[in-house]
């Protein structure tokens, strides 16, 4: 009984594309609590060690050495309404727990030099749809986590200009499950699971300009990363008579993570106010084809090449910060508010259950409190709601996805 499993293979794209309702495509911007409070912007404002991610060129302008750890639990669920039946289905997602860790060191001997190390989880989530949902032949469960390790150096060329560069090593793992349209004698459907590990290298470059006065500016470039899948596996659970058509075995593939160019400005109209704006250009167009090479081929399990046809996008992120300052004392409390808008890279006809992506607005807020000159805490919250209807050209799945995400975050900082 030959079965077209092409759409199963296509869904392996979720290696780097979980539901990520707080991103465009699968780009995630939860790498710093202060930036998150200001609409996920801040490449032109140096405040803590997270500058290693947002703009390495600004790290040399940090005044002290610092350790920074943070996490942003994500409460995200999707509702799907089928176009034909009007049936409603929902996800049963566990709480996601992305985190970031930074260590920034200012050289004592060379005051223009700074260096650091960051560990971030820019991709990772678990998406699980309720049992027997109408799209179970497209996806039932996806679990993945990707880590980025980035050593960085930053040098102040002049008193006003800093340059920085970081080497990025990316590593991750994924498990994807779905049902197959074949049945056992008891009426249950067959199933398939794709799992794998991948890794790749990239870099992060930044320029930071501080002419003095009310304006600072930043320009950063995070390169794309070619994620080579080194140990992919596919496993099938089908009736015994069909097992020869669906052999378990290895697979090989690769997937691109997009480059991100960010131009940012920071205005300081008063000593205790900051207004920031980041504009992102994300190179999604590089993700035009998804290909899989299976170790064991059969008439039902062939190597495939499928068009994804993503497009480059632009995103706008902005926010304000107010520092509560009394007399000439250093501020102890900061309040933040922000938001943004981003276009989706997913064209019509390519919307999938693991990435029900759409153009979206979002809002954020946050605050910080300094317990002492050395120790402080940050908090932020992110909220978005997106909706999009589409008919997938590969699977025929046709309906409307509505996604709501709430992401409160907290971070701790130690300076010395």
SSE run: HHHEEEEEEEEEEEEEEEEEEEE
Query: What is the radius of gyration computed over CA atoms, rounded to a whole number of angstroms?
Result: 23 Å
Q: Would you state the CATH class?
A: Mainly Beta
Distance between the termini: 68 Å
In the CATH hierarchy, what is the superfamily? Outer membrane protein transport protein (OMPP1/FadL/TodX)
Share of β-strand residues: over 45%
Q: Number of helical runs?
A: 3
User: In the residues, how many domains can be counted?
Assistant: 1
CATH topology: Porin
Q: What composes the largest sheet?
A: 14 strands, antiparallel, barrel
**Shape assignment:** elongated
Mean pLDDT: 88
Tell me the structural class: mainly beta
Percent helix: under 10%
How is the topology of this model organized?
Layout: H1 6-10, H2 33-37, H3 51-54, E1 66-71, E2 75-82, E3 88-90, E4 99-106, E5 113-128, E6 141-156, E7 161-183, E8 189-209, E9 215-222, E10 225-237, E11 249-257, E12 260-267, E13 273-282, E14 289-294, E15 304-307, E16 313-324, E17 333-342, E18 360-370, E19 375-391, E20 398-415
Antiparallel strand pairs: 1-4, 1-20, 2-3, 2-20, 4-5, 5-6, 6-7, 7-8, 8-9, 8-10, 9-12, 10-11, 11-14, 12-13, 13-16, 14-15, 16-17, 17-18, 18-19, 19-20
